[in-house]
Every structure is written in C-alpha cells, then in structure tokens.
Write a structure and sequence with these properties.
This protein is mostly beta strands. It is 0% helix and 51% strand.
Length: 111
Amino acid sequence: QVQLVESGGGLVQPGGSLRLSCAASGIFFSINDMWWYRQAPGEERELVAAVTTGGYPSYTDSVKGRFTISRDHAKNTVYLQMNSLKPEDTAVYYCAAAGKWGQGTQVTVSS
C-alpha cells in the first residue's frame, strides 16, 4: 500500500523559511519521480516542483530561486526547502508519486 506522509508545514512570517518532508512507503522510491503540489483556498491545485529519479529538479516560475526540491533515496524521502516565503505561498502542500497523494501540510505565510 502506497503511503506518502508530509510534514514540516506551519506558520511563518514573510521572508522566512520552512522545509517540508514527504516520507514514502509502499513504492519503489528509487524509480519514481516525485512532485510537490500546492492548493490555495479557492484555487486549483498547481505543480510547484518535481524531481526525477536521477535528482534533476524543475520548478514553477513563481518559486524559482526560492524553493529547492531534493530527495534522499536512503530515507525514501523528498524535501522542499522554501526560502524567502511570501504571503502568496500560503497553501496546503501535497506530495505526489506513483499516482498517489499525501494528506497535505498547511503552510501559512503571514505577519
């Protein structure tokens, strides 16, 4: 059974940082691309970042230069380091892989 468990969300002031984690189980982590999505209230879910099995990252334009996606094959975990956070980054962040989704973790950027 595939399980993706996100953690690391919270409340942060503008300009602050958070690191999200997504622990995967029940999948062959090393052969799956991994994705981070987010969904703000009243908005559609959008792709934020992706990382291939070989560690090649890609980002949506709005987070380039601020967010970094990485993966640790030994821990079956993918990370999203978020720096210089803005209020418009406020959303529920979801990890996805192998056609499955995690439960999401709330990120709120507010003073």
